[in-house]
Amino acid sequence: MSDIKKQLHQLCVNYVQQRMDAAQQAINEAQQATNDDTKSSAGDKYETGREMAQQETNRNLAQLNEANKLMVALNQLGTNVQSDIAVPGSLVISDNGLFYLSISAGTLTLNGKSYFAVSPASPIGVKLKGCKTADSFVLNGKTYNIEEVL
């Protein structure tokens, strides 16, 4: 089962890497646009364009920073975590879904099954943490029965 966790971990790494690459590409494009913008007689238009490009760069730098934080969190997860209690790095099988307690990366598809990569700080992650087989909890009016923690 740790093989599945390793594959889910890699899917999360790929997800974060795509976010980092997209943010870096957008930063490069905004910087290129700033460099290509030449000063014209309409100075205000030039300054507005530069300011907009700078804001876009700042927004993408913030996204890149967030993606870097996610990558650090992933790198701290052990893919060989063996615990009867759900901890970061655990795979939790419930009657309402398969949850990989790692980062918020949405739905991951592996071998035709859907797994939900959830952060331990998310509402469902908080409920999952500390659960063990046969535990149950209610979230948003829905009951989750834990079938297995891997």
Your description of this structure?
It comes from Mucilaginibacter terrae. Residues 36-50 have a biased composition (Basic and acidic residues). This is 3-oxoacyl-ACP synthase. It is a single chain. The protein has 150 residues and is of the alpha+beta class. It folds into two domains: 2-76; 91-149, no CATH class. The protein is built from three helices and six strands, in the order ααββββαββ. It has helices at 2-36, 43-76, 123-128; strands spanning 91-94, 97-101, 106-110, 113-118, 136-139, 142-149. The chain is elongated and about 65 Å long.
List the helices and strands and how they pair.
Elements: H1 2-36, H2 43-76, E1 91-94, E2 97-101, E3 106-110, E4 113-118, H3 123-128, E5 136-139, E6 142-149
Parallel strand pairs: 2-4
Antiparallel strand pairs: 1-2, 1-6, 3-4, 5-6
Helix pairs in contact: 1-2
Strand residue percentage: 15-25%
**Uncertain regions spanning at least 5 consecutive residues:** none
Shape category = elongated
Number of helices, where a helix is a run of at least 4 consecutive DSSP H or I residues: 3
Strand order of the largest sheet: 3-4-2-1-6-5
Structural class designation: alpha+beta
Characterize the largest beta sheet: strand count, sense, and whether it forms a barrel: 6 strands, mixed
Q: What would you say about this model in short?
A:
The chain has about 150 residues and is α+β, with helices and mostly antiparallel strands.
